[in-house]
């Protein structure tokens, strides 16, 4: 796993960048999934490292990029996959972000 560090603010989804962490799987996951090792790294290792290190609340919510921005990311197959992960939520905080931006 490669990362920029915990304190880097990304530019992936307006309204969420400073209140979230973004994870990227490089590739097209419309009809296939990333390799299991990569999925497990994010699903288990990254999240437990973030929670145990005090960087992420144990009550965190998991969203796909398309829930926060107009995009097909993370691809239909990967999006279906993360819906089965712990902490996945159907609705993103778009209403909160919209309220903050108005």
UniProtKB/TrEMBL annotation:
Chain ranges of the Peptidoglycan recognition protein family domain: 1-69
Domain of life the protein comes from: Eukaryota
A Gene Ontology molecular function term of the record: zinc ion binding
Gene3D superfamilies assigned to the protein according to its UniProt record, in alphabetical order: Peptidoglycan recognition protein-like
SUPFAM superfamilies assigned: N-acetylmuramoyl-L-alanine amidase-like
Pfam families per the UniProt record, alphabetical: Amidase_2
InterPro entries registered for this protein in UniProt: Amidase/PGRP_sf, Amidase_domain, PGRP, PGRP_domain_met/bac
Alphabetical GO biological process terms: peptidoglycan catabolic process
Protein name per UniProt: Peptidoglycan recognition protein family domain-containing protein
Organism: Sinocyclocheilus anshuiensis
């Amino acid at each position: 796993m490669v990362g920029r560090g915990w304190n880097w603010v990304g530019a992936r989804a307006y309204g969420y960048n400073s209140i979230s962490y973004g994870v990227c799987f490089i590739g097209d996951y419309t009809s296939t999934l990333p390799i299991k090792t990569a999925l497990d790294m994010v699903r288990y290792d990254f999240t437990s490292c973030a929670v145990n290190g005090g960087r992420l609340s144990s009550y965190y919510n998991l969203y796909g990029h398309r829930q926060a921005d107009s995009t097909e990311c993370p691809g239909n197959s990967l999006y279906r996959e993360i819906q089965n992960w712990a902490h996945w939520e159907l609705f993103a905080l778009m209403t909160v972000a919209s309220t903050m931006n108005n």
